Amino acid sequence: MKKQVPRQSAKEAAVGYLSHRDHAEKELRQKLKTRGYSEPDVIDAIAYCQDYNWLDDARYAAMMMRNGVAKGWGALRIKQEMKMKGVHDAIVSQALEDGDIDWYEHARDVAQRKFGNSEIDTPKEKARRFRFMQYRGFDFDQIKYALDTNDDE
């Protein structure tokens, strides 16, 4: 069964998607292709949106960065989410750099919100908290700092 030809132009569809929220270029390209637009139409639509600055991966990455921090994610998780959306590595790195976040303090804030001031009384509880923080995208040193664990004492 052949896909039905879309009623609106690829440009109109692209603008429609972007009117709801920012998209990464790769994400928008994929949505347009899925709706049945031809490759030349998709290329034209993306170029059109970029000409008017409606499609900007750097702005999208900055928005993803802000949203990720607000959700309590660490740099690793934010980076992974951006890569899944097709944001180029250089843009991801620049967004993380421009974000000017103290990841150690951010990790401590996230741990405080989740666990409060309760003590880590068992190795099982410590492992559970480490897993939670790892899932959120914090690295080992940030987690140690956030949970205030000093294994070497």
| Helix/strand order | HHHHHHHHH
Instruction: Estimate what percentage of residues fall within beta strands.
Output: under 5%
Question: Which structural category fits the helices and strands?
Answer: mainly alpha
Write down the CATH topology of the largest domain: Arc Repressor Mutant, subunit A
Rg computed from alpha carbons, rounded to a whole number of angstroms:
21 Å
Low-confidence stretches: none
Q: Mean pLDDT, rounded to whole units?
A: 90
Helix content: 55-70%
Number of separate domains: 3
The DSSP helix count reads 9
Count every beta strand, where a strand is a DSSP E run of 2 or more residues. 0
CATH class of the largest domain: Mainly Alpha
Folded structure, characterized:
The chain folds into 3 domains: 10-51, Arc Repressor Mutant, subunit A (Orthogonal Bundle), CATH 1.10.10; 57-99, Arc Repressor Mutant, subunit A, CATH 1.10.10; 103-147, Arc Repressor Mutant, subunit A, CATH 1.10.10. The model has no long low-confidence stretch (mean pLDDT 90). With 153 residues, the protein is mainly α. It has helices at residues 10-20, 25-34, 39-51, 57-70, 75-84, 89-99, 103-115, 123-136, 140-147. The chain is built from 9 helices and no strands. The longest helix is centred in the middle third of the chain and has 14 residues, at 57-70.
